[in-house]
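Margin note: ligand = adenosine-5'-diphosphate.
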Amino acid sequence: LPLPAPRRIKALAQDVVNKIAAGEIIVAPVHALKELIENAVDAGSTALEVVIKDGGLKLLQITDNGHGIDKEDLPILCERFTTSKLKAFEDLTSIGTYGFRGEALASISHIAHLNVTTRTKESSCAWRAYYADGKLASPKPGQSAEPKPIAGRPGTQITVEDLFYNVPSRRRAFRSASEEYAKILDMVGRYSVHCLGVSFSCKKHGDTTSGVSVPANAGPVDRIRQIHGSAVANELVALKAENERWGFKCEGWISNANHNSKRTTLLLFINHRAVESPAIKKSVEQTYATFLPKGGHPFAYLSLDIEPQRVDVNVHPTKREVHFLNEDEIIAIICDEIRNSLSKVDTSRSFMTQS
Ligand code: ADP
Ligand code: MG
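Resulting structure:
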């Protein structure tokens, strides 16, 4: 058979590139929301309100009381790789904020209708801007794309509407709004437990009752009680582990041997970012196996601080996964400490029943 002639190689159009990149970062509404929560926390907010319509596909809105955005920065806010958090590549090794690549708002603007209302404390009014494909856009045909002054409190409100409106295949992949809403509640719940000093609420548009509601002054156990119920909150023990050699510290709250549920709940934060780690989850489950009845699973909230230069946060577009050095050693130390805590609780109980 004759070889086919080579096809010529051409650069993709920029808008195609941007849409592909956006689809990798924002796979489901919850990923957009996670970025927006992290931005609000980075901005020093102490109150976060989330409103959702149709599992976030119709509307995702988050209102914060953080430092706001300068009006002068609004024109480049949603351009790719514009950020106030990272200047040099080396900064990635010492990054203290959640965001760092300036990709989230840009991505969202390529696959949704996005508008931002923001006010710094120096500004006498709030400004509202609409975005499409990374740039300021006019809200309606014939209107100016310039940000407009409006009344508003200090802080920022981000409104994302019609997510994936221009990616029909992705849009069709979502079968159930309530499934997406459940993922959103789970994510808001995670940050509600972790972010002490910050109040959270999350509800469906038009609802009077909230799916999540945590006051700013609630302590960690009360936060867990609000989100996961008293049955768990009444059976928690504090966990602390650290090791200088591996450059890490771990704090958290874990269920004792009195508690067990059908599935493991692991709220895992590494350097204040909610992440998944199948390796940590598996080891924690194995550690609990000797303490819980067969088929029983634990609850664990673990917050790890690992020296930034030992962590690579840049392995995954969604930053859902992070890699760090000496993972096995660190996991072993944490699980030893879990074992310690659980056996301490056990002995004190058997001691009490004896006397
Ligand atoms: P990154 O968080 O990686 O910097 P984003 O696209 O998420 O990139 O945000 C771009 C910039 O917009 C941020 O660096 C920050 O300066 C500003 N910003 C975004 N959300 C907020 C917010 N809620 N409050 C204040 N500033 C914000
Ligand atoms: Mg960000």
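Residues 35, 39-40, 43, 64, 66-69, 77, 83-85, 99-106, 156 surround adenosine-5'-diphosphate (ligand 1) (CB under 6 Å).
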